[in-house]
């Protein structure tokens, strides 16, 4: 069953690069349609099954054409959330149509016993399913390996533009694969229903195990997914037989997910990994008038409305707390988690069991529940160290489901059928019984949210918030600036776990008896969905998104004013989520804030209004850095059998500029990546002022004074210029992680930052968002940000690329000053030979990863090996004659 379910997942991913979380819902819909036509309309089973398969295919094709095609360049978060929106929509529609009851579906396959080896008996339908899984794997492997359609699918997935240039339509190919993959999902579900029985959530839960299988197959290999499906299934079955602890066997797929990610993942993403535009993030600015207005509105609702509304207030802010944890983790830090509701349940479990068994007072169990969830959150964070994006979403969903299966669904651990009966909550001798004093509990829930929301706003404005935004935007660039990516991720998971636990406790103690099965994995999906609808980067977005939850103010308003609409709220939420992702991924609150800002600016605009004066920078002098020499010897980098750099050796000296040149593909950027720690060296040494740093990580090298720029800039696009520079210059002390929650304080700009701002002409741009800057200014900012770390050694990767003659000349002057006035040891990779010859004291030349020359600019100009490498050596005499013309022309121009 696992293998069958995973085959369709692989097809969709191969054809479009999208992991379809709605795959199980499509299969469920197909199974219900087939069952409905067969049972209620008298259609023969085979024909009804065909109708169900076609229906699933149509769902897949429509999903791609109407939704996913428009998100081709969207971030992984947006594409993941879109498929979750489709999942919620299809599943909610199925509940409205068919209800939540389990339907018994008789098997149309033979079920007689077949004796295998004399001692084992297996029903025939199981053997038929096994054969079907094997045949499908072989057929699909053959199709995608040898047919034109399969080859075209691989081509379009590899490079859509290149595929289009040879007459292939990526849209047609993706639509066909979505339809085929979804059809196979429907076929698998129809075969499974006699074994699993037909219920709305059954196939969705089966998807979780299929994800583990697809992950092992790297979402590509059909034979591997078959073997993995059989292996995981056998392991789970044997554990069911021999392990009595509930939930252990069912958690096997999720253990496999974590293991695969830890083994296969990377600490930092590859050079070509980047996130497209992400949802916007609030400033974290506290506006007392808005806080006061919120207090007044909630007080009026609580004090003037019936109990059901007071109850809805408590539920809304309990959910809003869980959504606030998503704002921190996903909105600020960019870590996609589908396990937040499990963490909320963990906090509730710790607090609830302590209240029921140890009879601890409510304030103490509340605090211990919050703190106790933090280590569990850190466990969730461990896979995030080596994975990211949609793979992280799978891991967190699996971990959350494992907690649900092992703990929340275990009678002995949760108090049995009646649940955990807790003590009436008292707050310092003042009862806040949610039954007898509903209004008091509503104020308590609101108060907890206000306090934690203020802490989150503080976090956003502090150094910790900048670190998280840097990691969210570009992990490689953050690490190059000395930001500890691992610590930042762990911190984000820990803080979000504490906030989610606070929300879980508020929700759980809302009832005198806690039923922990309410903290299920599907609700974690809904939590992420509601946060995106509200605005995943905004504190207020958590409040708005919570209105979609069951029992919330939004649900109560629907029940009071439009009674018939309550049952449609999940469906409305799913459709709203899809609409938000397609139209405005900043969410309702983000869009509203932008509109309010625009309206306020229009109202306050005046012709006589003085022009804003840029902040005055203190007068500073250039501080020379500590003189540091870096020596690279025998550096070799190999990717399998491909040698990208071979036995490269040179020395970068303080106060001097060493140029590293060579044709495209010579290995220049590979050398920079190896020197700065982004790429592991096969052999060789990097020695910094007599200290071997070859085994040091990127962050540690940066903190020792080794900084770099990137060929593709890799700026923090959604941050301001000043925040980019502050991220580079911020101290790396650990105390800020705690202090920022209460008192976010930005240190004064250092001399290096102020000098860099002036040197690179950024005074009037400090409050501009980077993505709105012209290209030339972005180039200068990239170098200024690297300089802001106060490096002793600076590696510049094609800093003049795309600049005009005037801008290039100005940049050449600045690079020369970095060496002469600052005393920095500079390594310069550049294609502009005018730039290189005018700036560099010494030049090293690479060709096919090997050093072919090292010397002064005059020596390199006339070196025949260098000339041959650039111009070709078919005519050596002509190449030597061309040497005299290199002085004023760029090599790129000659090559053209």
Structure overview:
The chain is an alpha/beta fold and about 900 residues long. The chain has 38 helices and 16 strands. The strands form five sheets. A six-stranded mixed β-sheet has the order 12-13-14-9-15-16, with helices on both faces. The chain has a four-stranded antiparallel β-sheet with strand order 8-7-10-11, with helices on one face. Helix 2 packs antiparallel against helix 3 (about 45-65), helix 5 packs across helix 6 (about 150-160) and helix 13 runs parallel beside helix 18. The chain is globular and about 90 Å long. Residues about 270-275, about 875-880 and about 880-895 have low confidence and may be disordered.
Secondary-structure topology with pairs:
Blueprint (H helix, E strand, L loop, with lengths): L1 H15 L6 H18 L4 H22 L9 H23 L14 E4 L3 E4 H23 L1 H11 L1 H6 L4 H27 L5 H15 L5 H21 L9 H13 L23 H17 L2 H26 L7 H19 L3 H23 L4 H20 L2 H4 L5 E2 L4 E2 L2 E2 L6 H24 L1 H11 L1 H6 L4 H24 L4 E2 L6 H14 L4 H8 L6 H9 L7 H15 L3 H18 L25 E10 L2 E11 L4 E5 L6 H9 L6 E6 L2 E2 L5 H6 L2 E3 L12 H9 L6 H7 L8 H9 L15 H13 L5 E5 L7 H16 L4 E5 L3 H7 L2 E6 L2 E6 L1 H5 L2 H8 L4 H6 L9 H5 L1
Helix pairs in contact: 1-8, 1-9, 1-10, 2-3, 2-4, 2-8, 2-9, 3-8, 4-22, 4-25, 5-6, 5-10, 6-8, 9-10, 9-11, 9-16, 11-16, 12-13, 12-18, 13-18, 13-21, 13-22, 13-23, 13-24, 14-15, 14-16, 14-21, 15-21, 18-19, 18-21, 18-30, 19-21, 19-29, 22-23, 22-25, 22-26, 29-32
């Amino acid at each position: 069953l696992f293998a069958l379910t995973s085959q369709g997942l692989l097809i969709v991913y191969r054809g479009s690069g999208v992991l379809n979380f709605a795959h199980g819902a499509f299969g469920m819909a197909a199974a219900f349609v087939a069952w409905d036509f067969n049972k209620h309309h008298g259609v023969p089973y085979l024909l009804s099954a065909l109708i169900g398969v076609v229906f699933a295919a149509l769902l897949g094709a429509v999903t791609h054409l109407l939704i996913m095609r428009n998100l081709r360049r969207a971030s992984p978060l947006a594409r993941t959330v879109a498929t979750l929106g489709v999942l919620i929509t299809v599943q909610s529609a199925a509940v409205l149509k068919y209800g939540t009851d389990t339907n018994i579906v008789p098997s149309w396959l033979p079920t007689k016993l077949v004796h295998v080896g004399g001692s084992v008996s297996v029903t025939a339908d199981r053997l038929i399913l096994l054969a079907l899984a094997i045949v499908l794997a072989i057929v699909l492997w053959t199709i995608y390996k040898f047919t034109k359609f399969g080859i075209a699918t691989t081509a379009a997935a590899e490079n859509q533009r290149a595929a289009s240039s040879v007459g292939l339509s990526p849209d047609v190919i993706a639509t066909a694969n979505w339809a085929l993959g979804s059809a196979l999902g429907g076929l698998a579900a129809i075969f499974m229903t006699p074994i699993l029985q037909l219920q709305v959530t059954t196939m969705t839960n089966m998807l979780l195990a299929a994800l583990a299988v697809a992950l092992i197959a790297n979402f590509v290999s059909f034979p591997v997914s078959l073997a993995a499906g059989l292996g995981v299934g056998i392991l789970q079955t044997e554990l069911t037989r021999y392990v009595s602890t509930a939930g252990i066997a069912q958690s096997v797929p999720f253990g496999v997910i974590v293991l695969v990610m830890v083994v296969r993942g990377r600490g930092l993403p590859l050079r070509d990994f980047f996130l497209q535009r992400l949802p916007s993030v609030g400033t974290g600015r506290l506006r007392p008038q808005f806080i006061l207005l919120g207090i007044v509105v909630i007080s009026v609702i609580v004090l003037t409305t019936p109990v059901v509304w007071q109850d809805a207030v408590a539920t809304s802010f309990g959910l809003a707390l869980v959504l606030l944890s998503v704002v921190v983790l996903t909105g600020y830090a960019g870590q996609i988690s589908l396990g937040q509701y499990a963490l909320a349940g963990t906090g509730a479990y710790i607090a609830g069991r302590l209240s029921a068994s140890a009879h601890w007072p409510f304030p103490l169990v509340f605090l211990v529940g919050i703190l106790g969830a933090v280590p569990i959150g850190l466990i969730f964070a461990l896979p995030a160290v080596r994975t990211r994006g949609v793979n992280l979403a799978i891991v967190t969903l699996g971990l959350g489901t494992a907690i649900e299966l092992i703990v929340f669904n275990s009678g002995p651990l949760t108090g049995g059928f009646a649940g955990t009966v807790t003590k009436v909550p008292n707050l310092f001798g003042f009862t806040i019984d949610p039954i007898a004093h509903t209004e008091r509990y509503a104020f308590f829930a609101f108060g907890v949210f206000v306090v934690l929301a203020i802490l989150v706003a503080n976090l956003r404005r502090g150094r910790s918030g900048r670190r998280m935004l840097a990691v969210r935007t570009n992990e490689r660039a953050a690490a190059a600036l000395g930001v500890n990516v691992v610590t930042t991720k762990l911190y984000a998971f820990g803080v979000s776990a504490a906030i989610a636990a606070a929300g879980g406790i508020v929700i759980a103690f809302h009832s005198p008896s806690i039923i922990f099965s309410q903290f299920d994995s599907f609700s974690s999906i809904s939590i992420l969905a509601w946060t995106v609808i509200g605005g995943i980067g905004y504190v207020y977005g958590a409040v708005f998104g919570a209105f979609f939850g069951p029992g919330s103010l939004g649900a109560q308003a629907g029940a009071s004013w439009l009674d018939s609409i309550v049952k449609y709220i999940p469906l409305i939420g799913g459709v709203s989520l899809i609409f938000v992702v397609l139209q405005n991924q900043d969410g309702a609150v983000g869009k509203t804030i932008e509109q309010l800002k625009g309206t306020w600016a229009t109202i306050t605009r005046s012709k006589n209004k003085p022009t804003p004066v840029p902040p005055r920078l203190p007068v500073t002098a250039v501080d020379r850095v500590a003189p540091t020499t870096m020596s690279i010897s025998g550096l070799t980098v190999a990717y399998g059998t491909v040698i990208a750099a071979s036995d490269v050796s040179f020395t970068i000296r303080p106060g001097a500029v060493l140029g590293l040149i060579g044709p495209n593909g010579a290995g220049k950027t590979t050398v920079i990546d190896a020197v700065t720690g982004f790429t592991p060296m096969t052999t060789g040494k990097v020695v910094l002022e007599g200290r071997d740093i070859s085994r040091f990580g990127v962050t540690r090298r940066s903190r020792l004074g080794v900084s770099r720029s990137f060929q593709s800039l890799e700026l923090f696009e959604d941050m301001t210029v000043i925040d980019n520079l502050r991220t580079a210059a911020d101290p790396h002390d650990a105390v800020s992680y705690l202090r920022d929650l209460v008192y976010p304080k930005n240190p004064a700009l250092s001399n290096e930052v102020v000098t860099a701002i002036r040197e690179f002409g950024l005074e009037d741009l400090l409050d501009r968002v980077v993505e709105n800057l012209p290209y030339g200014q972005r180039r200068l900012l990239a170098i200024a940000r690297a300089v802001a770390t106060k490096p002793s050694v600076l590696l510049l990767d094609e800093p003049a690329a795309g600049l005009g003659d005037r801008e290039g000349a100005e940049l050449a002057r600045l690079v020369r000053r970095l060496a002469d006035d600052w005393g920095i040891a500079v390594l310069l990779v550049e294609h502009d030979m005018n730039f290189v010859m005018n700036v560099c004291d010494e030049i090293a030349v690479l060709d096919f990863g090997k050093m072919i020359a090292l010397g002064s600019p005059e020596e390199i100009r006339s070196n025949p090996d260098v000339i041959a490498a650039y111009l070709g050596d078919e005519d050596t005499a002509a190449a030597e004659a061309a040497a005299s013309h290199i002085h004023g022309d760029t090599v790129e121009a000659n090559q053209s």
